[in-house]
Amino acid sequence: MFIWLIENMATIIISIVLMIVAAAVIVSMIRSKKKGKSSCGCGCAGCAMNGACHPAKPETLKNKKYEV
How far lies 12's CA from each of 5, 25, 52, 63, in Å? Predict the structure, then answer.
């Protein structure tokens, strides 16, 4: 078992580093999503899917006055 670890040490180290990088990217994406940041990097003002990815909160809808 010890010989196998020594022979594959480079592969093991690279795999661990790649897993750490992937975990950091995922954590960063989750934090950005919780903060309400856009995933594409641009603003939502000109986006055709503005209402789909960031729906209005119910309390916001109550405060809006709709004109006919």
Answer: 8, 20, 42, 56
